[in-house]
Write a structure and sequence with these properties.
Helix content is 61%, strand content 0%. By secondary structure, the protein is an all-alpha fold. The chain has 15 helices and no strands. It is globular, with a radius of gyration of 16 Å.
Length: 259
């Protein structure tokens, strides 16, 4: 969970920058958390308190307005009568990472990923993105090496994960769909050599930087065993008190070392 939040925070100032390099400051005066962190915390809260996802998403979204929500999701937040709206956007994938530490069985992780997605993102692509990210995080948590993670996620999702970051970067542009941003984010993790490198690679594609760094960061935290203190401390300081509280409760309930 924290890896996802850290990736989001670092990527927050680069979302519309079209940056094509890994050489950039991790933190600036404008660095903050976005809807990715808010909804990741909402998923964690639903798991901790055994509440339904829709009500928690609306609660957190209203508590943290103007954090970069998409227009359809923004309308959904403000209207409790609305149900899922066939979204294939990457919002289902960026928020799903807390699911992976909450269950011991892969089958349950995938089931819960689907449940967390389909309250809004009930399009098959929205569900596929959430399942792919949750599976990658789960496998990383349980000691799978990168070749196994790549093969298992590709087999389950049908995503092509063979391209390199250098292959993708030149022509890549901002994409908000799961099918055009989740596989690329996973590839950034697969090519990385540590947590920071995974986040930098994701941002360097020049796309939906905060969300792609959120996804790559979630998997990288699980694989590399945490978020380095030089990143973790400033990220925690930038979170609102309620988000820090959720993070602390989640980490106490589902310790990384127990996976």
């Amino acid at each position: 969970m924290f890896g996802a939040i850290a990736g989001d925070v670092i990527g927050s100032v680069y979302e519309n920058a079209g940056i094509k390099t890994t050489d950039f400051p991790l933190f600036t005066r404008e660095t903050t958390f976005t809807d990715d962190s808010v909804m990741t915390a909402a998923v964690a809260t639903a798991l901790l308190e055994r509440r339904d996802y829709a009500s928690v998403f609306r609660e957190f979204g209203r508590r943290h307005p103007r954090r970069g929500y998409g227009s359809y999701f923004h309308n959904w937040l403000s209207n409790p009568s609305l149900g899922p709206y066939q979204s294939w956007g990457n919002g289902s994938a960026m928020r799903v990472s807390p699911v992976a530490r909450a269950f011991e069985a892969e089958r349950r992780v995938l089931e819960e990923a689907r449940r967390s997605a389909e309250v809004t993102h009930d399009h098959p692509e929205g569900i596929r993105g959430a399942e792919a990210v949750s599976l990658a995080v789960f496998l990383a948590l349980h000691g799978a090496e990168k070749p196994e993670i790549k093969n298992r996620v590709a087999s389950h999702s049908g995503y092509a994960l063979d391209a390199s970051v250098d292959d993708i970067r030149p022509a890549y542009r901002f994409q908000e769909s799961c099918q055009d941003s989740v596989p690329q984010s996973i590839i950034c993790f697969l090519e990385s050599n540590d947590f920071e490198h995974a986040v930098r690679l994701a941002i360097s594609l020049g796309g939906d930087a905060d969300t792609m760094a959120c996804i790559a960061g979630a998997i990288a935290e699980a694989h590399y065993g945490g978020v380095p203190h030089a990143i973790a401390d400033p990220v925690r300081a930038l979170l609102s008190p309620d988000l820090r509280d959720v993070l602390e409760r989640y980490e106490a309930r589902f310790p990384l070392t127990n996976c």
